[in-house]
Amino acid sequence: MYQSDAVGLDPYQTQEPKSAYQTYAVGQDPYQAYERAHGPYQPHEPGYGLHQPGHSPYDDQIPDPKSRMLAIQNAKAYLLKSSTTSGLNLYDHLANMLTKILDEQPTNAVDIIENISKDVKWAQFQKKMDTLRDEHEILPTFEAAEKRKALFLKANGEGDEELEEEIGETPLPNVMETAFYFEQAGIGLSKDESYHIFLALKKLISVQPIQTCRFWGKILGLEMNYIIAEVQYHEGEEEEETEEEEDIEEGGKRRGEVEDEDEEKEKEDEPPKSTYKPPPVIPKEENGTGANKYVYFVCNEPGKPWVKLPPVTPAQIVCARKIKKFFTGRLDAPVMSFPPFPGNEANYLRAQIARISAGTHISPIGFYQFAEEEGDEEEEGGGGRDTYEENPDFQPLSVAEMVDSLSTWVHHVQNILKQGRCVWLNPFQKSEEEEEDEEEEKAEEPDELQQEIGPPLLTPLSEDEDSVCLAASRNSKHPCLDSSAFYKPDPAICCCNPPV
Question: What is the model's pTM?
Fold first, then answer.
């Protein structure tokens, strides 16, 4: 019943099992040894056929070599994708972890794999240290100072001397005084930023032939902000730039006419096309008038170069009223919207500046007056007077009176019509030569457009139509009006946030 043991073999001595890595004699098949120890297996058993060449139960699951390589490349590309927060990728992180583990060979590495991962990440953000001297650290304040260093240098490059105040009239107003008054009303910029803007405007008027310069405001963007300056050129300087722009436009028109003539000759035998004619393009207002009365320069922050914005067109103003887009801070960025905007972000910024100026630039009643020479004369087209002057005999009202009613505040910037211009223009009006040429050929002409007439200059805010006040104040009667009398009764400052 029991098998007898060999001579000299202890019956209690167990025979050690063969290791999986046991070597076999030369010429001996390991599968045969495997069968002698554990087999042979029957066809219905799981281990049957594993040693036979070309046979595997997973042959149908092995993908095609090409698709397998594509899957490997996709997996590697996924591992190489950088993180949006740290900038690292999983492929390099795993490689660094394996290198650290093989170099140090810690005990129970699987138990401390999380700590190894943290150490590898921490080493990526550690500063490189030299054996003799640490790496120089550049502070953010030092970088900001380097950017604004040019603001404190004079034109000849000598920055050691103190800045001397210029004697005489200057086109630049007192920016710090204006910032102080806005600060009393609870709005505005910091004192440091206001002073940097003042220096940047001073650099601008030293480069450009500017007659008047004013800090228009600051518009925030997603990537960068816009600091905007409103300027007027000296007489004659702007005319040269206007002539250059007109030459470019005329050259483009001539090229277009020549191309149209060539296309007409080539397409004589083509089938008839639609007779629909798009509405005529409304021309932009001339520089120095209407929405293009002022020229605007922008920069992203004080110390960076100023960039001149192009003139605004009626089509851009009309489209800007229909869309809502965030500014990016890049003037060359495209404006993706519907309806499509005719231009890039520089044109969109210029259109919004025109709209904001027309609706929010206000002054106390009586501060400005029309020139006596003009009298009651009005310009052709029903646009009214577009110029005014400061009233030397102005007597300001009390703060209580200015806070009590919107009729004490007036608009001193021309209103923009629905056409996109400040002065209405009939697009179907033709010159005398065109009328003589088209007397014989009379086609169906559209009905005459009704002339638009907007409110004249120095119109009180109380006469605004369809306006909504977006401000909130302690004044329950007029939320757009507020004063600093609650905090500082003497002297008090009145603040008006005009309705839009």
Answer: 0.65
